[in-house]
Amino acid sequence: MMRTGSTTGTIRTRRTVRAAAAVVATGLALTLGGCGGDDDGGGAETVPDEKPVTVDLPKLDGETLEIAAVWTGAEQKNFKQVLAEFEKRTGAKVTFVPAQDPIINFLGSKIAGGKPPDLALLPQPGAVKQAVEKGWAKPLGAAAAKELAENYSQGWQDIGKVDGKSYGVYYKAANKSLIWYNNQVFENAGAAEPKTWDELLTAARTVYDSGVTPFSIGGADGWTLTDWFENIYLSQAGPEKYDQLAAHEIKWTDPSVKEALTTLAEIWGKQEYLAGGAKGALQTEFPASVTQTFTGGDQPKAGMVYEGDFVQVNIGETKAEVGTDAKVFPFPAVGDSAPVVSGGDAAVILNDSKAAQALATFLASPDAATVHARLGGYLSPNKAVEMSAYPNDVQREMAQALIEAGDDFRFDMSDQAPQAFGGTPGKGEWKALQDFLNDPRDVAGTQAKLEADAAAAYGD
């Protein structure tokens, strides 16, 4: 049976952020301040003491809550400051529970043991749907639904729905169509920011000829590889095909997939272009793929690293300053236009209590997002957040582009898939693309493996 996405037919409203591309392209050239060497990862300026109060929250003295997410490092640390604000306002005590991928399996073990967290942040719409189908997720109450209706575009509301009911608050969003580069490397090599795929290949060759390996890839984390594929596929095959493949309405053996994989192999197939070669890339986790690009001055392990706006969090763990040492350009156009793929994390209630509903309501409000925005390395789809809350010009440009795009976006394809295919380490799309990174000559074999795994996961 074919599916129209990971929740309902409303998911088909996901479109590329076309408006974002032009805004981000200009905004990314701006110089940032206060972003280097801050171990909180946010590149944040001093957070003002005053906090916005726009949502009424109940008194919850003595109540305890747990919220689970796969976030680590600075991302986790910053989110805990948001939870601290909720504690201050309500009197409740909130514990952050570190989860492992796939989070659905993690939650399943907790539920089987009789100790599920009260809420969880799910990084895939497919995981939200699975949580609903398993009877774990609880609908959002009236207060949280009111915040969603007031603060979110219809598209962001819809991707948190299953069968017309709201289950997920998309607390965090991401622009996953950016390539970050070591500015010293580019300047020394005489490389220019590319706008097309061919220009990216030229820039890579220029960097390589200067004595620096062009790309750092966090291949140990399979999700980074799916993001590479999705950007190429969206730009090359177009939005309609993207939607069809995301819903498994066309097979992974389709010629459009072959074309995208062949294009991807133009970089992945050049061992000398990858830090550590394919073997090294497959042993590199995402955070290290970023930090090794921005340490070592003008002789880092690589000159460029692809991933979303959240790369700033990891750059903040180095001595590089974003905007001077570390710069960024939009993922180049492979087809007629440059892609912009969006992602996000949805807060879902697992234990339907007054306190859990209050925390979901808080996370749907501009109050929570404003606290997090000030810490840096974060974008919110909440349109009520003031742009001044973001700590630097580039993040303000990214956030403004996200809000101005409204419903005009396309969501990360692998996140729309059943988690067994699109979000499980060592399985499905993650594993197939890791194998492809290891042997980019095997396009047909990769397509066959992707299709077999997709058919099993979608129940076709």
Describe what this molecule looks like in 3D.
The chain is of the alpha/beta class and 460 residues long. It folds into two domains: 58-175 and 341-411, D-Maltodextrin-Binding Protein, domain 2, CATH 3.40.190; 178-330, 3-Layer(aba) Sandwich (D-Maltodextrin-Binding Protein, domain 2), CATH 3.40.190. Helix content is 44%, strand content 12%. The protein has 21 helices and twelve strands. It has helices at residues 18-27, 73-90, 103-112, 125-133, 142-151, 154-158, 183-189, 197-209, 222-237, 239-246, 255-268, 277-282, 286-291, 311-315, 354-364, 366-373, 393-405, 413-416, 419-422, 428-438, 443-458, and strands at 64-69, 93-98, 119-122, 161-162, 165-166, 168-175, 178-182, 215-216, 304-306, 326-330, 341-349, 410-411. Strands 1, 2, 3, 6, 11 and 12 form a six-stranded mixed beta sheet that branches. A four-stranded mixed beta sheet has the order 8-9-7-10. α5 (142-151) packs parallel to α15 (354-364) and α20 runs antiparallel to α21. The longest helix is centred in the first third of the chain and has 18 residues, at 73-90. The protein starts with 17 loop residues before the first helix and ends with a helix.
